[in-house]
Specification:
Blueprint: E1 4-6, H1 13-25, H2 31-49, H3 56-84, E2 97-102, H4 110-123, E3 128-132, H5 145-152, E4 165-168, H6 177-180, H7 182-190, E5 196-198, H8 202-213, E6 217-221, E7 233-239, E8 268-272, H9 279-286, E9 293-306, E10 312-313, E11 322-327, H10 332-341, E12 345-351, H11 360-372, E13 377-381, H12 382-385, E14 398-409, H13 411-422
Parallel strand pairs: 1-12, 2-6, 2-7, 3-5, 3-6, 7-8, 8-9, 11-12, 11-13, 13-14
Antiparallel strand pairs: 4-5, 9-10, 9-14
Length: about 450
């Protein structure tokens, strides 16, 4: 059977323009049209950045992006300088804050590392809380600009700041993936006993976690660039397959959020997607950071779980089986190639934009394609499954793949790091400043 690829669906510029015009003309009846069009544009831009698009239009865009990267680089360097020289002050909440982040956008495996670290600290008796910004979660209602300005000048009473959103209180999950964001929801689901708090302002979120849950360790998800909150340790993830982005450029010409020399802020460096032979990557890392401890790890598929029944089947169950693969992640190839390494024959491929929120009709279309191709089963990622609507049972089973991080070199370093963080340290007595809850 021949593999069929269902691409992410980029339209021509003319088709995209027509869809956008229709969405503006008929906003009530085309609520999802703007979202779909923006995803098409996002996919096209990604393809341009990673050099998957050819032609004059793509080449011109790359020239424009190169110029914008210079501007972005200047902004990043200025911001880092202001924090480093204390022109802008960070906040210390009186408890250790462990940041897990990366230099690039998407696809390095932060969520499984956050899960593994939080569980390890929890098992050693620390009251851990995970903080996340809740990327692409449902936005909270904002105060109108006119009222905001009136409050600032004292013309009306200042409205109370909204409290951070509690995804999990450690006992039960309180928000769905739409309101929490898919990564915080996954962390809440897979980390029982550990509260998960979401807010764009992680200083406010951390203070709330300390006051409500008595947290004595905060794990900051995707926190390397969040400098307002003082970090005790920065754990930086490096993807072995693209150590410093796809081309070494900063956004938007490349995928780097910061220049590679920002790696010097790292206390520990995790090389993810490693095969155990990372000497070339380690040499690159040592150009920027000679002191950080290095741990090599990889994503390990644990089992497949039926999305309807919850039945778990062994990871080798798909060997020599024809499957349909659906994903909406930053690097869909890693998921599809992972299935192939497990012996599956990937017959139908459906790719959507990263963090895509799935709708019934598009999932129905994928299922129908799989039925027509007579595949044995359909598979998605756990991260994508949490963004599914409720689906009727199909004629063929639908599974998600449960993946965890496996350390293949440096387990002793990880254990030592956990012990270091978990050991109680004396913190000067003090009271949390009241303005932490109002920090912006």
């Amino acid at each position: 059977m021949q593999s069929i690829s269902w691409p992410r669906g980029y339209k021509t510029p003319l088709q995209t323009a027509r869809r956008l015009i229709d969405a503006v003309r008929f906003p009530a009846s085309n609520a999802s049209l703007v979202k779909d069009t923006l995803e098409d544009i996002e996919n096209f831009i990604i393809d341009v950045v990673i050099n998957n698009r050819r032609g004059i239009r793509a080449s011109l865009l790359r020239v424009v992006f190169r110029g914008l990267s210079g501007i972005y680089s200047a902004v990043v360097r200025t911001r880092l300088y202001l924090y480093r020289h204390r022109y802008i002050h960070d906040h210390h909440l009186g408890v250790p804050v462990i940041s897990v982040g990366n230099l690039t956008v998407g696809g390095t495996g932060k969520t499984p590392v956050v899960e593994m670290l939080a569980k390890a600290l929890h098992e050693r008796g620390r009251r851990v809380c995970i903080l996340s910004r809740g990327y692409k979660s449902k936005r909270q209602k904002k105060l109108a600009f006119s009222k905001k300005m009136a409050a600032r000048f004292g013309l009306i009473p200042k409205p109370p700041q909204p409290l951070p959103r509690i995804v999990s209180d450690g006992e039960k999950i309180l928000l769905d993936s739409h309101n929490a964001g898919d990564e915080p929801f996954m962390l809440a689901k897979n980390c029982p006993g550990i509260p998960v708090v979401v807010d764009k302002n992680r200083v406010k979120a951390g203070a709330h976690a300390i006051q409500r849950f008595g947290a004595d360790v905060l794990v900051l998800d995707d926190g390397l660039q969040y400098l307002k909150l003082k970090h005790r340790h920065d754990i930086v993830l490096i993807d072995k397959t693209a150590a410093f982005g796809n081309n070494g450029h900063l956004l938007p010409r490349g995928t780097l959020r910061e220049p590679p020399r920002s790696l010097r802020r790292a206390s520990y460096i995790f090389i993810t997607k490693s095969d155990g032979d990372s000497e070339d990557v380690i040499k690159q890392i040592r150009r920027y950071n000679r002191a950080a401890e290095i741990i090599e790890c990889r994503h390990r598929a644990m089992h497949f779980e039926n999305i309807h029944t919850g039945e778990r089947i062994p990871i080798d169950s798909l060997r020599d089986k024809f499957v349909g693969a659906l994903s909406g992640i930053a690097v869909p190839e890693s998921f599809e190639n992972g299935l192939r390494r497990l012996g599956a024959k990937v017959e139908v491929i459906a790719r959507f934009a990263d963090h895509h929120r799935f709708h019934g009709p598009e999932l129905k279309q994928f299922i129908e394609r799989c039925v027509r191709r007579d595949v044995h089963c359909m598979v998605t990622t756990e991260k994508d499954f949490v963004r599914f609507p409720k689906l009727p049972v199909a004629d063929i089973p639908f599974y998600f793949m449960r993946v965890e991080i496996e350390i293949i070199r440096g387990r002793d370093i990880f254990d030592k790091m956990v012990r270091l963080i978990a050991e109680p340290r004396r913190v000067p007595a003090g009271v949390l400043p009241a303005d932490f809850m109002e920090a912006s």
